[in-house]
Amino acid sequence: MKITVIGTGYVGLVTGACFAETGATVHCIDIDQEKIDKLNNGVVPIYEPGLDEMIERNKGKSRLFFSTDLKDGLKDAEAAFISVGTPPDEDGSADLTYVLNVAHDIGRLMDHYLVVVTKSTVPIGTSEKVRAAVQQELDKRGVKIDFDVASNPEFLKEGDAINDFMKPDRIVIGTDNKRAEDVLRRLYKPFLLNGHPILFMDIPSAEMTKYAANAMLATRISFINELSRLCERVGADINWVRKGIGSDPRIGSKFLYAGVGYGGSCFPKDVKALIKTGEENNLELRIVKSVEEVNKEQKRILVDKLLRHYSNDVKGKIFTIWGLAFKPNTDDMREAPSITIINELVKLGAKIKAYDPVAAENAKRIFGDKIEYATDQYDALLDSDGLLLVTEWNEFRFINYKVAERLMKAKVIFDGRNIYDPEEVRKHGFIYYGIGRK
Questions:
Q1: Which SS3 state, helix, strand or coil, does residue 339 take?
Q2: What's residue 194's pLDDT?
Q3: Which of 15, 48, 264, 377 could make an S-S bridge to 326, C-beta 3.0–4.6 Å?
């Protein structure tokens, strides 16, 4: 079975590689010739554990191809997955320019029945716009070629995307046609053999499911973060509260970790887009709007703690940032809490030394020479007036306190992810600040 994946960003690369891994022939198409050349030369433009090896393995078995030639990519394909970006506009709505451009290109080039699948995260109603764009081009050509449109949202966690795709909690597909359903059921058959559920539904429901899922997870994060602030005021510990409520099977413990807020390519963008969709339909999504507002405030919480500790005077002081990516196991800096923290501290006159295992290059595109980039986590501690743990990479979980004490000017730790034991930190003579802890 041959499929085409249009767009070689995060979703497109993972989708193409994983389908190839199950035996499909996959042509990944992108308009960026430089990116395609790199992929053909073994250079993967994103960091995702296991992806490099999977891509090379399937290229070697002639199941995975990279090209800028959409016409050739569509030849004999049974499905075309649109996996291009949907960046937020200034008003928070998703920009569908790239999605609809691809739909027009498909309509101009297709020559046989095709299932056009929106894999990108798109607002409710986008599939109908895709259908109209394809049909418009067919009408211009004066040809009658059958095609169907489907929605197949992705539920991938950066840092664990391969596992999420190969062992999905669920596969959601929106269709309005049995023929399209049969094509996609055949494509996903290898996953069904392993017992993973596939849910067929109408297209608007599939589009809504993606936004609803991300908004719910973002809500849990903002909820526990808001509670963490109250815990500090009343003398409770959010870690115990989290365990207390998380042990209830109706609630569960996932996404109930207090910290410095959520970031990344999905939650911030999708929350904004859902709010905008509500506004466009004369409905104020008050809970979702509050989720976004709480998250904005939470990204500043370490700065607020640091300012209280230093009586609002941090000018000329040096602070160490451990972790720049929005989460571990990725180099993604989009909407990362570290951006807010660093920008605020620099604006207040502080100097920053930062270390991240993989995100430094992306960070340099954001901060330039406004901060110093260390190549080792302990090098970043030299003459530091405080350590801010922002991203909970595994290598940060244990601190060599003797080395830290020798290097740091001031023995104070601001734990933005609650990964350290406050008693242990204090036992080594350091001042400890966590999130929602006594």
A1: helix
A2: 73
A3: 264
Q: Is 266 known to be catalytic?
A: yes
Same domain, 308 and 293: no
Q: How many CB atoms lie within 10 A of CB 330?
A: 26
Using CA of residue 343, residue 345, residue 348, residue 351, what is the dihedral sign? negative
Whether 36 and 135 map to the same domain: the answer is yes
* 219 and 284 both lie in a single domain: yes
Residue 432: both structure tokens together: 């400890």
**122 touches 98 (CB < 8 A):** no
Q: Which two tokens stand for residue 116?
A: 């056009």
Q: What whole-number distance in Å separates Cα of residue 242 and Cα of residue 402? A: 32
Q: In 3-state terms, what secondary structure has residue 147?
A: strand
SS3 90: coil
The H-assigned helical ranges of 61-112 are 70-74, 97-109
**Per residue in 228-247, pLDDT tens?**
999 999 999 999 999 999 99
Task: Let me know whether 306 and 287 are in one domain.
Answer: no
Where the chain has pLDDT below 50, the residues are none
DSSP state of 41: T
CA atoms within a 13 Å half-sphere pointing along the CA-CB vector of 109: 18
Q: What are phi and psi of 72, to 5 degrees?
A: -70, -35
- Would you tell me how many other CB atoms lie within 10 Å of the CB of residue 24? 20
How much is the pLDDT for 42?
93
What is residue 191's predicted lDDT score, i.e. its pLDDT?
86
Q: Would 438 be classed as within a structural domain?
A: no
Distance CA 6, CA 73 (A): 9
Query: 189 with 237, same domain?
Result: no
Q: From the candidates 18, 28, 231, 266, which is the catalytic residue?
A: 266
CA 94, CA 117: separation in Å to the nearest integer? 18
What three-state secondary structure class fits 387?
A: strand
Per-residue pLDDT of 277-303, as tens digits, reads 999 999 999 999 999 999 999 999 999
Helix (H) or strand (E) holding 277: helix 267-280
Distance CA(84)–CA(388), nearest Å, equals 35
In sequence order, what are the beta bridge partners of 66? 28
Q: Are residues 388 and 402 in the same domain?
A: yes
Name 322's bridge partners: 355, 389
Q: Which domain does 277 fall in, by range?
A: 211-297
